[in-house]
Amino acid sequence: MVVAAVLALPLAATPSPAGAAPFPAGAAAPAAGRRVHDIQGAGHISPLNRAAVTGVPGVVTALTGNGFWMQDPRPDKSDATSEGIFVFTRTRPAATTGGAVQVGDAVRVNGRVSEFRPGGSKSAGLTRTEIDAGATTVDAHGAPLPPPVVIGPGGRRPPASVVRSAPGDAEKGGGFDPRRNGLDFHESVEGMRVRIENAVAVGPTRYGELPVLPANGAGAGTRTRRGGILLRDGDANPERIVLDDALAPLPGMNVGDRLPGANDGVVDYAFGDFKLLLTAAPRRADGGLARETTRPQRPGELAVATAGLDGLDPDAPPERFRALAGDVVEGLRSPDLIAISGLEDNSGPEDDGTVAADQTVAELIAAISTAGGPAYDWRSVTPRDNTDGGERGANTRLGFLFRTDRGLAFVDRPSAPDPLQDGPPAASPPDPATTPVRAVRRDGGAGLTLSPGRVDPGDAAWGAARKPLAGEVTWQGRRIIVIAGQWFPQSSDDQPLFGRFQPPSRPSGWRRDAQARVLARFVTSVRTADKNAHVIVAGDLNDRETSTPVRTLATDGGLTDLPAGLPAGERYTAISGGNGQALDHILLSPSLYRRKHEFDVVHRNAEFADRAGDRDPTVVRIDLPGK
User: Where is the segment annotated Disordered (predicted)?
Assistant: First the structure.
């Protein structure tokens, strides 16, 4: 129950600073005591945490099902102390005097200050400072809302690169400097009314969130050629504002779309990020972004691509198959070979023991043909049930789609006794899912014992993860070893970028680093069999070109990572929270890198709200005429 607290001091007993919006004439004045900025303090944890407070004044700025935001119309002179706060009422906000709480009500709140941590006490995210309401009094209706803080040029500008300069737990010290640290800046406006003007989208609308830059991105960090913003070493772009639809719907937006004019909301924190909850639905202005199409390969050029299917199974809507087929035929111009990730078994997420994926593959190949593409074939290794990670029951796998009408042929080499092992042959053929492929000297060059075959599937690095798939192909008489990979993804064990621990720990990176070392050893074994071997590693490596795992693979395997050579404005295949980054890679051995080649990220998915998958496909065209 919400109990009204009746206070009878006259308004004149509490003087207003110059320029402050007063409470309506005739309203009972707040009792002498703590104000919102006293509760918020200049830090991530309230100096009054767990303390009881009475008569805290404010004007209601936004409502939700279990509380409301209010803001003090009489701010102090410090930008470091927020003037807004969330009042947690558990049920629909109401008071026993003055009726239901409404936006524009002048209220006084009794309660206890608390720090709510979304995700639970063990979460690495920050807390939201709030008042657990015990009593709310509505003194007057129709109070003017405190003016919003403008974020961006002409207002308060967040730091352009630094999230937090002091390492350690941000809630336990290290100073508090909103002028230099993005984490502290956003904390300093937590709970307040904020305005962004003429915002531009730097990521698509997804899961009810939309990352934007105010003022059409003026003064922001390194932008992409198509209007996004790049994640770089030492620059996580704290100037991004993440909009959330908790209070008002957001339109479907693509990168480069705009929100004209002013849009207001309240700042909240949830699950690893600060969010601006707009209080009215914004208007969308189309930025005109179009899906890219690469050029077709020329005679003598081998085209090898990557494509993530993001959990495709036979029950996916037909329009999704059509969109993915469009990526292959229109976007990639029907390359000779595609390293595929994210393809599920015939029953999708049903955990029914199914592991075969022939129906999924058949539907995809049929959709490509219907879209005007060539007749593709498929090779993969069927995993054991629920051993490769991902969604349980889905048995997501890697594979190769390839066409044979331009000079490419897949060398099929079924399971056979390992030539490097002593002893008599096995009584029955070994299981391809668990049998490691090995590089051997064959016909004067490097070949494989299995094709397709899995790279060291028993190594602990691949536990609950997709095992790399190696295949031996020929292109107009030249032998090529192609390896499809999908490394361990960034996971919930990784600490959030805008979390309490700085810099955030990312344990998933350790898994990828171990996987990089295993794969590099295999590539080295191929190049040991033939120092001039043609080797291509392609796929979803789930890490950036400057990361330790990708560099380990490139350096230890003697490979060159192609995304690293792109101009900065093109160097992204994925967008997370508005940050563009290259997570999908193609790497070449020296014998191929020396050939004339052309690498392209074909931007068709990551920037769009309506898309078939999360990632942009990539393609390399290598000038490799026949012998």
Answer: 150-181, 375-397, 411-460
